[in-house]
Structures
1.
Amino acid sequence: MPQLRREKGQQGNHQVRKRAITSPAQELIERIAERKRETGAVILAHNYQPPGIQDIADHLGDSLDLSRLAQRIPERVIIFCGVLFMAETAAILSPGKTVILPEPSAGCPMADMITPEDLASLKQRHPAAEIVMYVNSTAEVKALTDICCTSANAAKVIESIPEDREIIFGPDRFLGGWVSARTGRDLILWNGYCPSHQKILPEQIQKLKRQYPDAKVMVHPEVPPAVAAEADAVLGTGGMLRFAGESESNTFIIGTETGMVYRLEKEYPGKTFIPASPHAICPNMKKISLEKILASLETLSPAVTVAAETAERARGAIRRMIEIG
Ligand code: SF4
């Protein structure tokens, strides 16, 4: 019967079809695909990006995945949908490529919580210390760093340093505290934090656990310790994807930026993912839009550049992070 009605209302259906074909979002997506073909560009997107961007990205991943990929892929133009430190890291690792951040003001407040001057003065007080910086840091800070780490490999990085060495760790005090507890190493911690992960509260997780007693709780190491204490697993976003796939559980409470919920749903449509807090939104991660991606592809700008000397010094610390894996 519904089919008969469709045939009778040909005119109406025609209009519906026409509207679908010419919808502005669809036109935008087609134009992006066309410009990608013309320019040979590739779109990389972080797991926290908005759904519309995750849907059109060529590759999705966490900071470490995307840094490695940027180096490995043959494309010479990279549209990086994430925040500035990620695009800088890609540019540092791939000096011959054009790395474009479609919204240049998409920064990371945590990365800006430690300046090169802050780090230099800390190093002066601890001259023998090894400097480990979370990849969520500026290129200038990385240039003063011995080895970078991601949330996925922070423990391995700390374990790679001789036990008798002092270690300065920044900028995230929560990731640092979590790694210190895991490795049993004392760290000289910088006092930075992620404002979006700080919005996740232990009471919110406790309430959801009562509501979904069979759910597994995964949280990111950027959350405060009282939140991490509620979790079954403390993982970076790549680790969360693996954990959700390997777990027999069908329901998960997700303690990280809410974009990750969409990423997990895309990967495992049969499972249920509940954000620990609807307020854990990174406003910087949401600054990029399809319109801005198209504008970047039309103009091949704004490209992220890092001064040659800074890039040279930062590259060693980033490469060491990648080698540890
Ligand atoms: S989620 Fe936090 S750490 Fe990540 S980019 Fe946003 S502010 Fe920075």
2.
Amino acid sequence: MSEKTKILFLGDIVGRPGRHGVRKFLEKNGSGYDFIIANVENASHGYGLTRRNYEEISSFGIDAMTSGNHIWDRKEIFEYINDADKLIRPLNFPEGAPGVGSGVFKTEKGFLIGVINILGVVFMSPLIPPWELLKKEIEKLKEKTPVIILDCHAEATAEKMSCGYIAAKQGASAVIGTHTHVQTADETLLKNTTAYITDAGFCGSQRSVIGMDVDTSVERLVKALPVRLEVGPMDRVQINGVEFVVDCKTGHAESIVRINEVLNLKEEVS
Ligand SMILES: [Fe+2]
Ligand SMILES: [Fe+2]
């Protein structure tokens, strides 16, 4: 049996256009992957994740979900996160926060995949720096599997790149940046073992400001008022992410390829 596993990581799913587009994308391409991870921090109208949307996204065939600074945006998250087996919140919240910062999942072929999520601390709301916690968490998961995928949810490019090298040194198989929603073109194999990209991008409305409606985004910026942001239109949806192959015996990544597809959903929404 081949010991390679092909993993898909989808950038932040934003609102209904993102959910709908990801469903369509996976209907066509999902069977080509052994394991699928998506960042879901913006999946419910741009803010957080309702239980209903958690279940909906689960049903698309997504195996693990990571998140970020928007994880607590929906009050109901506190009621269901401890039962949501696929959902991980950032590791570096203070002790006592509900949910977990990592998980170990089993693929259909029987391989174990460790997934960790951290929040950056540069240009973000104050939080415990994740570096010591991350080191311990990688060591802990390494006792179960050599395959460790890290979602580094952060604002600053330099912080994400540094995070890539930190986690590569500790033996992570992949470090995928999220949060800025714009896909970077710097995918690479760090140390020849760790798949890396500074930002995976986002899945959602293409004619938008990082997934949100252009007019309300511009109004909010220009007026400097807390204008309620709407999600962008449904007609053209972009799917951003990366796919990478990992040797399950060594935990080393062997390739990383960007995904940047635009789905024309006009006929379906008119
Ligand atoms: Fe996001
Ligand atoms: Fe974020």
